[in-house]
Each structure stands twice: as structure tokens, then as C-alpha cells.
Amino acid sequence: MWKLLFPSIAMIAITYAFARFSFGLFLPSITDSLALTERQAGISSSSAYLAYTVALLTSSFFIRTFGQKRVIQFAGLTAVIGLFMISGSYHFLMLASGTFIAGLGSGWASPAFSQVVVTSLEEKERDKGNTWINSGTSFGLILSGPIALLLTEQWRLAFAFFGVVALVVLIWNSCVIPVKKSEVSKVTFFDRSILAKAKYLMTASLIIGIGSSIFWTFSRTYLTAQYSMGSHESSFFWVIMGISGVIGGIAGVVIAKLGLRISYLLAVVVIAASMYLITIASVPFIYLSAVLFGISYIFMTGLFIVWGSREFSSMPAVGVSLSFLLLGVGQTVGSAVAGELIQVTSFPFSFISFSFVCLLGLLVPVKITTYET
């Protein structure tokens, strides 16, 4: 199993942590270098989430047309191209274009890997396999943090390095991921029966997407602007978040013990608390915020994969795509709104507001209605 999981985890690390979320890590330096406004920074980040949404909308079609391995290769290739474009950006439009291309990979990778899990792992291993692959984001954050610490001012070199690593991971996956056929339904996301079955999953994903967006995009900027933290301290915050996120990889085990509903409710409370704690001007609370967000976000996304895979057991790529689609829509809207809100109010008010958005997730029922084709 692990021979398959290791390159899969590495690809998720590249497409999520390096190609999407690391932008927030380097945002202060990029903003200074390119003289971006908070609005432009928000738009640049949102373009990655928009690409993520577009990729999710096309993922099932691509998997059905080209096969799961080819789609994984597409994901790796866009990450490579996008990262090198960001590295070479000298103005806002090129930067936004680079983040858009880089963002495509994450939207294709997760659904494709959910199909790989179905075709390559035994049923008893699938929840564990899905959630460990999803934890690749955390491993990517662990690596990107020290790189940001060493190359904070040389962000172009950092993204070029990310691009080289992405190329290596693309080759690794091309050599290891097996070519296997999987039956992917020809239903579309606009099928009423699909949307009706997934309404609770989609609602929960949208809420968490909106709520978490501010943390991914502006947490490090918050630390430097509000608390005058240096690059060492803010980079350590990012590494702590990544290390903690690895714990979220046990989501499959926790769900098996507590059930999907209790696991979901606990994760909602923890992710909301993490965004509130960063507003408390105390070093222990600030780093506790990183710990709780890292654990709860990776746990929550792993939970959404399990939820979507169970609800659409015969075609998990559709369930995962729907969940992550709404997560991406929420992050696209949320990131842009967060930039505007910070600009007209303050960092603390904005983070607390988004914390309450996450708590709305407690109102969403957790029900599984298996979809049959």
C-alpha cells in the first residue's frame, strides 16, 4: 500500500502546499516586491482557488476520458508550469496568471487519487489510504516553512525550487501510479439527483471553504502586520501548522471510532477556535492557533473525502469533486472578501468574523444517502 501512497502524498504536497497554499506564506515579500495592494493580493490568491474550482468541474470528465493516471500527470504538469510562472512574475497580471495555472493541479489530483484508491486498495484500506494521501498538504507545509525562512526575500528562487521539486514528483508518479481502468459514471454535476444527494456535504464544504480562506491567505501577513513578527517567527508558525496537520492524517481512524457526525462537529469547533485564538496577543495562543488549524483543516478535508466516497461509493471521484468544488468556491469568494474586509476594518475583526462563519457548519446535518448508478 505504501509504495502507492508515498508518491501520492508527494503529489498532494506539491499541488496543494507548494502550488496553492505557499503563496500565503510568501505573500508579505511578494506584496512588497511587486507593490501589491491588499485587494490585488486577495485577487491573486483567489485566482488559484478559481482554477481549483474549474479543475474540479472538469475532473470527472477528464478521468473518464483520459484515465486517472493521466489526470494525475496533468495535475503535476500545471503545478510545474504555474510555480515557474510565479517565480518569474514582475507584475500583478502575470502573478495572477501563474497562481491560476498552479491552482489547477489540486483540483485534478484529489478526485483522481480517490479513483486510484478504489482500483488499487482493498476496501478496508480505503478510508485510511484516502486520509493519508490528503495529509500530503501538511508534509508540503512542513517543507515550505523552512524554505520560506531561508528564502523569504528571495521568493522567486523559492518558487523556482518548488517547480524543480514538482517536476521530480511528476516523474515519480508517472513511474509508480498504475494504469488501471475504473468505471466513472457519466452523470454530471448538474444532475438534480446528484445535487440532492450531496446537499449537506456541499453545504458543509462551502462553509468551511469560506471560513478557512482567510487563514490560508492572510495568517502570516497578520503576524507580521499586527504583531510585528519577523520572518523566523512567522515561518515557524507555518511549520508548526504543517507538522500539526500530519495528525489530521488519522482522520480515517477517528471516523471509524467516533462516527462521521461526531468527528465533523468536533472539527468544526476546533477550526473556528483556531481562527479566534490568533487574535489573542499572546505567543502561546498564537502558536496554539497554528496547531489547531493544522490538525482541524487536514482532518476536515480528509473527512470530506470519506464522506464523499461513502455517499458516492461507486464513483468516489464525483463525491470528492463535489465536496472540494464547494470548498474551492468558498475559498475563492472568501479570500477576496477577506482582503476587502481587512482593508476596510482590521485583521482581528476579520479573523473573528470568519471564525463565526465556520461555526455555521454546526447547523449542517451529517447524513449519508448512498448514490446508486
How would you portray this structure in words?
- The protein is built from 15 helices and no strands.
- The model has no long low-confidence stretch (mean pLDDT 87).
- 83% of the residues lie in helices and 0% in strands.
- The chain has 373 residues and is an all-alpha fold.
- The radius of gyration is 19 Å and the shape is globular.
- It has helices at 2-34, 38-66, 68-87, 92-120, 123-134, 136-150, 155-176, 192-197, 199-226, 231-247, 251-258, 260-277, 283-311, 316-344, 347-359.
- Residues 5-373 form the Major facilitator superfamily (MFS) profile domain.
- Keywords: Cell membrane, Membrane, Transmembrane, Transmembrane helix, Transport.
- Pfam families: MFS_1.
- InterPro entries: MFS (IPR011701), MFS_dom (IPR020846), MFS_Efflux_Transporters (IPR050189), MFS_trans_sf (IPR036259).
What would you say about this model in short?
This protein has helices spanning 2-34, 38-66, 68-87, 92-120, 123-134, 136-150, 155-176, 192-197, 199-226, 231-247, 251-258, 260-277, 283-311, 316-344, 347-359. The protein is 83% helix and 0% strand. It has a single domain (2-363), classed as Growth Hormone, Chain: A, CATH 1.20.1250.
CATH topology: Growth Hormone, Chain: A
What's the CATH first level? Mainly Alpha
Helix/strand class: mainly alpha
For CATH, the homologous superfamily is named as MFS general substrate transporter like domains
| SS strand fraction | under 5%
CATH architecture label: Up-down Bundle
Shape estimate? globular
Average of the residue pLDDT scores: 87
User: Order of helices and strands, N to C?
Assistant: HHHHHHHHHHHHHHH
Low-confidence stretches: none
Number of domains: 1
Give Rg in angstroms.
Answer: 19 Å
Which percent bin holds the helix content?
over 70%
Distance between the termini: 28 Å
| Total number of helices | 15
